[in-house]
Amino acid sequence: MEHVQKNKRLYSFLLVLCLVCNLFTGIPAAEAAESDLLSAIPSQTISTTPAQITLSIAKDENGSAMAFNWVVTDTFSTEGKSNLVYSENSDMSDAVTVSAQRKDPDGDDIETDTEEEWGVFENVYAYSAKTYSLTAGETYYYQVGNETDGYTETASFKAPDKNTDSFSFVVLADTQSNTKAGYNNTRELYNYIAEQESNAAFLIHTGDIVEDGNVSVQWEWFFEAAKNLLCSIPMMTTPGNHESGHHDKNLVNFKAHTNFETLTAPEGLSENAKGTVYSFEYGNALFICLNTAAGSADDKIQFDFLRQQVEQTNKKWKIVFMHIPPYDPGKNHYSVDNETGKLLSDAGVDLVLSGHEHAYARNTLLTTDAGIKKAEPGNAPTYVIGGSVMNAAYDRNSKSDLWSQTFVELRKPSGSGIYAPGVYASVDVKEDSLTYTAYYKADGENFSAIDTFTINKNGNSEEPPVEKKPLEIDSAEDLVTLSKMDISDRDIFLTKDIDMEGLEFTPLNGSVLYNGIFDGQGHVIKNLSISNTGKNCTG
């Protein structure tokens, strides 16, 4: 297979473009000046040695199983064959050999939203294999490769235990960068997790692994930085907008680097979405991965899948992870998505993990036909935006004051950069309780807990009751946001005159009787049109 390089650009143009991109991604200028940019288009390392190894939990009706994925960037002397070899013994005696299946991702399948693509896709051989009937909780040793070209060094993993009484897992978000130096945070944080969270059963990455999904060398940079952790712990991930969307609509590189094909998945997904929506069980929890980059037809299928999985499981905990959060209080991607929120509330989901905003935020919100209502953990889905590993963070949007509960400022006082190496969380799951703890070097020196909460299955929480303060409205945007909330028992005060000209407005609590006080305090709302005049409408 020949290496395909597309749309190579002159160095001067690339350097300028990278510097411009840095203005939007929040990458410090010093990083932009790294020697990586001295090459017009960096290329991935050419080698017959398997690399970019990923483990993921696999499904096996007869016991425990693990799936593996790796790539090779040069042709084999053995006609491209590759194997997974694993053993219960560290010397690899009595090993089992599994022939790997090969995928040949092709740059011709890359689609972007621009005529001239950003970056270079370089073809690789992508391999996947699965272990069989492992003993849950036992340590195994493995290598990948072949006899002629050689095998990787021996690494180890623990077989998944879907019946354990308690376990922990790690969560982190956006690791992306468009320079090699930009993955230094990933290297430092993943190495730290390997030391401090050695008992973690798996890692959940909530998307945006790389900055440009169609740039092959960025995937190499990420896996090189993360290899000390990912060689031994499964990574369960979902595509972010930088792995998909206008970067790589067909998710060619994402699918070349992941292997979730053995897990439970819905039927009928588009070719692009296959392999990105799945569920698995671990301990007393059901995990469901959703793809926020999917189209509307796929959305219906994946949310039907969500409902079906929750209805059929006997697991106590229902945990969803996806890239774009339904409720985002951040300044960069502010969102109040009650449609998705109601689907998650109706399904009885306990915890929703996401990224995208490059911020740390937490909200427990019950979504009904009337809108969103603040709740305690355990009484509604708790939404967590997991922070950032990429060296960029964003502020809170003032509009979120109406509904947002927890937001932690990650930015250094000097600008949008964060304290290296970013944020991660450890989640401890027991039979009747789930404790989430997020860690960050908030003082610039040492990791410490920046947020922690516990959800108990008896419905009680270690959080104090949510105080129902009067809602103060001082802008048209606030009033529009208010129309998406359940404010049936909240007092509302206007603090300024508001002009609603040109804005679409939904009546407040149009389907629920309003029992609060709406006080204009001498202020007026003008140019507001209400087409629905139902008896419960407020305004």
Characterization of the model:
The protein has 539 residues and is α/β, with parallel strands linked by helices. It is built from eight helices and 30 strands. The strands form seven sheets. Strands 13, 14, 15, 18, 19, 20, 21 and 22 form an eight-stranded mixed beta sheet that branches. Strands 12-11-10-23-24-25 form a six-stranded mixed beta sheet, with no helix packed on it. Strand 24 and strand 25 form a beta hairpin. Helix 3 packs parallel to helix 4. The longest helix is centred in the middle third of the chain and has 17 residues, at 296-312.
Chain-wise SSE layout:
Blueprint: H1 11-25, H2 29-32, E1 51-57, E2 66-72, E3 83-87, E4 96-99, E5 101-103, E6 125-130, E7 139-146, E8 150-151, E9 155-158, E10 167-172, H3 184-196, E11 203-205, H4 216-230, E12 235-237, H5 252-256, E13 278-282, E14 285-289, H6 296-312, E15 317-321, E16 327-328, E17 335-336, H7 338-347, E18 351-354, E19 359-368, E20 371-374, E21 382-387, E22 406-408, E23 424-429, E24 433-440, E25 448-456, E26 471-473, H8 476-482, E27 492-494, E28 498-499, E29 518-519, E30 525-526
Parallel strand pairs: 10-11, 11-12, 14-15, 15-18, 18-21, 26-27, 27-29, 28-30
Antiparallel strand pairs: 1-2, 2-6, 3-4, 3-7, 5-6, 7-8, 7-9, 10-23, 13-14, 16-17, 19-20, 19-21, 19-22, 23-24, 24-25
Helix pairs in contact: 3-4
